[in-house]
Write a structure and sequence with these properties.
Number of helices: 1
Shape: globular
Order of helices and strands: HEEEEEEEEEEEEEEEEEEEE
Distance between the termini: 43 Å
Radius of gyration: 21 Å
Structural class: mainly beta
Helix content: under 10%
Number of strands: 20
Oligomer: single chain
Length: 326
């Protein structure tokens, strides 16, 4: 009898373990992904983990550090606190936001905006570097990479990406977007063949928050429209044959749903190639909140039609299905 009880207990335990694994595999992320006010999320895959680098959403004088979040499956998220703050960036005094991260030669470079500068003010787009995606990050240049206003674009909302062996930075607020080519060591910029350094690629409707990805040889340029503190904040996109355009606005693909949330915008894209899943990571404002900084980080699927156009994104509370990285 004792042996039967032990065998029964082992079988029950195995059933519970198996069920737990199946349940985890079939579970959903939920939205928001993690607690707290976080905005402008940069999502990416680093080795076998999903990473999200958001803005800590607070008044400018309190928005002086970055946290990061990692997950093996889009369900379970680990918080990495204060991977960078203004004590490490001596020229940054306030308002650090919209991080964009890239791995190069075994190091991780975090591009950020600081100080919300206007004409003849100090600040702009800086770079921090670390040996691990969770930091700690330290100042890379000791000064802004871009600290002036060119083509009317405020140096904020930077997006770093690599294309055909070259590194580019897209950035810009105040309804203007520039693209620059970076030196291979990220210590400065390189002029384009036509002699210009700051090439404006602003499409119709652009306000801020640029990002780009390549799919089937086409360049998808996405950006945010509307007022970031308002309910009509949203995301639109264009498609071109090159990262320099010309970009003709196609449509709005992410916007508020009065039954789910408002102010859905400032996003990034993750492509998980094994299962060919595309995700849009973005912030939105819960229906019971009206304050400008009351923003949470969410995820939903990004889908395409037979012509390669992006389908309107459905805002959900359940988020996306678990997708463990192999």
């Amino acid at each position: 009898m004792k042996r039967l009880i032990i065998i029964h207990a082992i079988l029950l335990s195995l059933i519970q373990i198996t069920y737990g694994q199946a349940d985890k595999k079939n579970s959903f992320s939920g939205n928001p992904l993690f607690p707290g006010w976080y905005a402008d999320p940069e999502g990416m895959i680093i080795k076998k983990e999903y990473w999200i680098y958001p803005t800590f959403s607070a008044p400018f004088d309190e928005q002086v550090f970055f946290d990061a979040f990692s997950s093996p499956n889009l369900i379970d998220w680990t918080k990495h606190e204060r991977i960078l703050d203004t004590t490490k960036i001596k020229w940054a005094k306030r308002a650090m936001w919209a991080p964009s991260v890239i791995e190069k030669d075994g190091k991780y470079f975090l591009f950020f905006g600081a100080n919300d500068i206007h004409e003849n003010e100090s600040g702009g787009i800086g770079i921090a570097v670390a040996d691990h995606p969770a930091g700690p990050f330290k100042d890379y240049l000791g000064k802004p990479l871009i600290g002036e206003i060119y083509n009317g674009a405020q140096p904020i909302d930077q997006f770093i990406f690599k294309d055909k062996g070259h590194y580019y930075l897209m950035y810009g607020g105040w309804r203007h977007c520039n693209i620059v080519k970076l030196k291979d060591d990220f210590t400065g910029t390189i002029p384009f063949d036509d002699g210009t350094t700051f090439k404006e690629i602003t499409p119709e409707g652009y306000v801020e928050g640029p990002s780009m990805f390549v799919r089937n040889g086409k360049y998808y340029f996405m950006w945010s429209e509307g007022e970031w503190t308002g309910p009509d904040y949203s995301v639109a996109y264009a498609i071109a044959d090159s990262p320099f355009g010309p970009f003709k606005r196609v449509a709005k693909v992410l916007q508020q749903n009065p039954k789910v949330a408002t102010g859905a915008g400032h996003h990034s894209i993750i492509h998980e190639p094994t299962r060919n899943k595309w995700y849009i990571i973005y912030h939105r404002r819960p229906l019971d909140q009206t304050h400008g900084n009351a923003r949470v980080t969410c995820i939903d699927e990004l889908c395409f039609d037979s012509k390669g156009l992006i389908k309107p994104v459905e805002l959900t509370f359940k988020g996306v299905k678990a997708n463990p990285l192999r």
